Structures are given as structure tokens and as C-alpha cells.
Amino acid sequence: MHEGFAIGVIEKGVEAFTYKETKHFAPAGSLVVINPGEVHTGYTASEMGCTYRAMYADATLLRRAASETADRQRDIPFFSSPVIKDRQLAQFIFNLHISLKRSTSRLEQESSLMWTLGQLIVRQADSHFRSRPIGQEHWRVKQIREYLESHYAENVSLECLSRLVNLSSFHLIRVFQKEVGLPPHAYLNQIRVMRAKKLLALGHPIAEVASETGFVDQSHFTRHFKRLVGLTPKRYMCGSKNVQD
Q1: Which of 100, 124, 148 is at the close of a domain?
Q2: What is the DSSP string of 2-70?
Q3: With left for phi above 0 and alpha for psi between -120 and 50, is residue 9 left, alpha or beta?
Q4: For the purposes of burial, counting CB atoms within 10 Å of the CB of 163, is it exposed (0-12), middle (13-18) or buried (19 or more)?
Q5: Do the bridges between strand 31-34 and strand 5-12 make them parallel or antiparallel, or are there none, so unpaired?
Q6: At residue 155, what are phi and psi to the nearest 5 degrees?
Q7: What is d(CA 7, CA 5) in angstroms, rounded to the nearest whole number?
Q8: Are residues 71 and 107 in the same domain?
Q9: Which 8-state DSSP code applies to residue 133?
Q10: CA 94 vs CA 14, 86, 157: distances in Å
Q11: Is there a single domain that holds both residue 164 and residue 210?
């Protein structure tokens, strides 16, 4: 058993386990959610074995996510079914696991965590959790955008943005995405890349540009730059030079 929640997504094969005296099977594409303090087993139920990604979340974190989702104090959520067949939600959990493992951006990690846990609670928790309706928050979104544009080189946190505009993290993400079309961390990457393009066009060294625009290192910078621009920073510099010539 675990002190907190065990949340996993099955990637391949079938996992089997006994939970509350009942045997369960979790095929690829499904979620497994075990409530805190519940005794359970766990083993593969297919000849090919099974692979899965799992995270273990403290109960207070789920209570915070539930409260932020509802925009009022809520108890720790409870999940009656340990196997959840919701492929979209499973993909959300998978993406979260990748983000927590690979990303160095606090804003991306915190945003992915809070938004995904909110989705899990709203869609699958036993108690009815209703998200707060999205209202007109233009001035708050404007504040966030201005802050990100001024602090793009810093490792901005979601908590910092929440305090800035007095919104819960979960509601802030939803409001921002509705207004801008991107979550805050993706918008921040756009700002960084746009600034980087200007510096590269002026002939600044790639490593220097990566550091000045808030990326951890050159490879991290190159990955994001190529994804958004379609070229590596080096090829972009060559193109800019040819245009100037």
C-alpha cells in the first residue's frame, strides 16, 4: 500500500492486481488509480509482460487540486474504480509524466501537474467536482502576458503568476488558454524564441542566446527553436545572414 495516491498509465501489455478482494485487469491505454492506504497486489497478466508509467502523489496535493478545480475548499477526492478506461485522460497522464521527467521549466511542470490532476478529479472522482465557470478575465490575462514578456529569461513559477492576479492555478491556466490560445508555459516559450530570433539575426553566438533567453542549455534551446521555427538556430542564422547580404 502507499501513503498517497498511486496513479499509473499502462503503455503495453496487461497489468493484473487484486484490490479490495477483487481481481482487476488494466490493458494498455488504461489508467490505474489506487487510493491512499489501500492494500493491493500487482503483476503482469500477459506473456509479453507489461510496461507502465506511474507517479505517487501525496493526498494533500490531490486535495489542493480538487480545491483549485472547484475554487473552494474540498476534501481529498476518492476514486471507486481502480481501473479507468479513458484514453484521453491516459494520454494526459502520460504527457504529464514526460513533462515532470524531462522539462526544466517550473511553469511547464507546475501547469501540467495541476491541470492534469484537475482533469483526473473532474472526470473520474466519485464526488461531483464542477470547475468554476470561465468569466471575462482580460485584464488578468494582460497582466500575466506583460509579466512573462518582462521576465522571459527567468524560471517563472505558476504560483508566482497565481499570486500576481489572485487566481487559483487551475483557473488561471484555463482562463489564459481560452484568451490566448496557449497555456502560459507555451506562451513563454514563444516569447523566448521570438527574442532569440532577434539576437541570432544580430549575430550573437547560439550558446549565448540560449542563456540570455532562459533556456537551460544549447540543446534545450535548439529543440524548442526547431519545433517552433522549423529550423535549427544555426540554419536560421545562416538564412538571416544571406538575407542581409
Answers
A1: 124
A2: -SSEEEEEEEESEEEEEETTEEEEEETT-EEEE-TT--B--EE-STT--EEEEEEE-HHHHHHHHHHHH
A3: beta
A4: exposed
A5: antiparallel
A6: -85, 75
A7: 6
A8: yes
A9: P
A10: 16, 12, 22
A11: no
CA distance 157 to 143: 15
Q: Which of 74, 100, 124 is the last residue of a domain?
A: 124
Using CA of residue 100, residue 105, residue 109, residue 112, what is the dihedral sign?
negative
Alpha helices, DSSP H, located in 125-244: 138-150, 158-165, 169-180, 184-201, 206-212, 218-229, 233-244
Of the candidates 33, 116, 121, 113, which has an alpha carbon nearest to the alpha carbon of residue 70?
121
- Within this chain, do residues 15 and 96 fall inside the same structural domain, yes or no? yes
Nine cell digits for residue 197 = 530570433
Query: Which amino acid is residue 200, in one-letter code?
Result: L
d(CA 220, CA 104): 9
Domain limits at 239? Answer: 187-244
Q: Global pTM?
A: 0.84
Q: From the centroid of its chain, how far is CA 137?
A: 22
Same domain, 75 and 13: yes
Number of domains in the chain: 3
Q: What is the pLDDT along the chain (245 residues), one digit of tens a residue?
A: 999 999 999 999 999 999 999 999 999 999 999 999 999 999 999 888 899 999 999 999 999 999 988 888 899 999 999 999 999 999 999 999 998 888 888 999 999 999 999 999 999 998 777 776 677 789 999 999 999 999 999 999 999 999 999 998 999 999 999 999 999 999 999 999 999 999 999 999 999 999 999 988 888 899 999 999 999 999 998 876 555 54
